[in-house]
Amino acid sequence: MALKDLPADARPREKLLTRGPGALSDAELLALLLRTGMAGKSVLALAQELVDTFGGVAGLLHTSAEDLRSIKGLGGPAKRAELVAVLELARRALAQQLQEREVFDTPRAVQHYLQLHLAAKPHEVFAVLFLDAQNRLIALEELFRGTLTQTSVYPREVVLRALHRQAAAVVLAHNHPSGTVQPSRADEALTRTLQAALALVDVRVLDHVIVAPGQAMSFAEQGLL
């Protein structure tokens, strides 16, 4: 059924304006962004397909423009660009929050921020959040990129980047494209090596976060630091 054929109070735009955004389902909110469907598929059906295919809104936020091409009705660049733009706005909103507040105040925001940046990548990436003396975000840098199973991380490079950023502390992060966030022995050994190297220049390692689509694991929360 097309949106114009729905009762006025059931149309997403009217429902949002009269009852607020909280009254809308994920698919209805997404339909407002998409605006139009395609021949034989309403915009609500298209929105629901996106939610179902990518595992909800969290999964959708971790998709790339290339991932979206697989959905019939999103073959053109306009709708894909709009969805990718929403993802980038989410990243920037979280980055602003982390720049204004101590990361210890918002541990979940840190994890979500890292998920938005790293979780959807098909290859393994090692990144570092550089923090100032108040534990606020200076920058996120992707320092190393590896295969699906292994990344080579050079402690000397991490130390040099920390000095360049004049960081007082860091949060280490990497993704597991396999989908699991369980740390390996190599992950634990790398964390200890980087802790020791950074301690020589008085930079603290506050956490090491492993991310995958829809989930994250914190070394600090698990007592591994």
UniProtKB/TrEMBL annotation:
<dbReference type="InterPro" id="IPR010994">
    <property type="entry name" value="RuvA_2-like"/>
</dbReference>
<dbReference type="InterPro" id="IPR046778">
    <property type="entry name" value="UPF0758_N"/>
</dbReference>
<dbReference type="InterPro" id="IPR020891">
    <property type="entry name" value="UPF0758_CS"/>
</dbReference>
<feature type="domain" description="MPN">
    <location>
        <begin position="103"/>
        <end position="225"/>
    </location>
</feature>
<dbReference type="InterPro" id="IPR037518">
    <property type="entry name" value="MPN"/>
</dbReference>
<dbReference type="Pfam" id="PF04002">
    <property type="entry name" value="RadC"/>
</dbReference>
<keyword id="KW-0378">Hydrolase</keyword>
<dbReference type="InterPro" id="IPR025657">
    <property type="entry name" value="RadC_JAB"/>
</dbReference>
<keyword id="KW-0479">Metal-binding</keyword>
<dbReference type="InterPro" id="IPR001405">
    <property type="entry name" value="UPF0758"/>
</dbReference>
<keyword id="KW-0645">Protease</keyword>
<comment type="similarity">
    <text>Belongs to the UPF0758 family.</text>
</comment>
<keyword id="KW-0862">Zinc</keyword>
<protein>
    <submittedName>
        <fullName>DNA repair protein RadC</fullName>
    </submittedName>
</protein>
<dbReference type="GO" id="GO:0006508">
    <property type="term" value="P:proteolysis"/>
</dbReference>
<dbReference type="Pfam" id="PF20582">
    <property type="entry name" value="UPF0758_N"/>
</dbReference>
<keyword id="KW-0482">Metalloprotease</keyword>
<dbReference type="GO" id="GO:0046872">
    <property type="term" value="F:metal ion binding"/>
</dbReference>
<dbReference type="GO" id="GO:0008237">
    <property type="term" value="F:metallopeptidase activity"/>
</dbReference>
